[in-house]
User: What shape does this take?
Amino acid sequence: QHPIGCPFAVRCLLAQSQPQALALALSGPVWSSCARALTMDDTEAAAAVPAAAAASALPFAGSEESKRGVVYIARVPPFMKPAKVRHLLEAVGPTDRIYLVPEDDEKRRRRVKAGGNKKVRFVEGWVEFLRRADAKRAAEMLHNRPVISSGRGFHGSDLWSLKYLKHFGWHHLQEKLQYEQKLRAARLRAGLAAARRDNEAYLKRAEAAERIAGVERRKRKRASAEDAGTKGGAAAAAVEVEIRAKRAKAARNLKQTVPLRRPMGEAPPSKTDE
Assistant: This one.
């Protein structure tokens, strides 16, 4: 798991008695700057290895991993499964790993809701051939060619869209997927943080609005009580004035010309006398 020419790898090869791999390791670019590390201890040798070479994760030159080739599928035929893709591409050469990217869940949900096909659809993919020559030949022979040579069936009118990726290994794809996962996680965290900030701001505005509404309610209640007291006093005064007017109208305002009491034995005056 060390880069080509790394002293630790050379020591392992010496211990395992692998002369061919040892010669390959000694021819690596790292060995020129690390040859003196064989006489050092592990701590000094680790300090002597360049950081870029120590961090390198490329496969060994001449290994089985380096002899493989990767083909990029820009457009996967609609609703074609990975097993079918492997079956069609293995007509050119043996394949090992295959990775197809499924479509967005929201697009599939809208399609199913509109009455479309419920199967999973893949948008793009990568196929690893065991031999680099087979990968090149597959990209040259099948690009812009019908998926099915007979032209019949569900994919009879679909065309391949293939491209051979030069100097591209499966570990690059893994790094790409890891980077995309980290990017999605960062976007998710940013989205959650933004939603949290919006929620806190909304709650603050709602609390402020509730306080303002409470103040307004108390003001209206106080004004209503004052208006009710004023109207009640005015109504009572109006009733009192009306009662007094009625009493004044009912009372007689006549001048008394005849004494109220007559002497005993005196007869009341008759109408003729008047």
Summary: The CA atoms of residues 42 and 143 lie 51 Å apart. The radius of gyration is 51 Å. The first helix runs from residue 7 to 16.
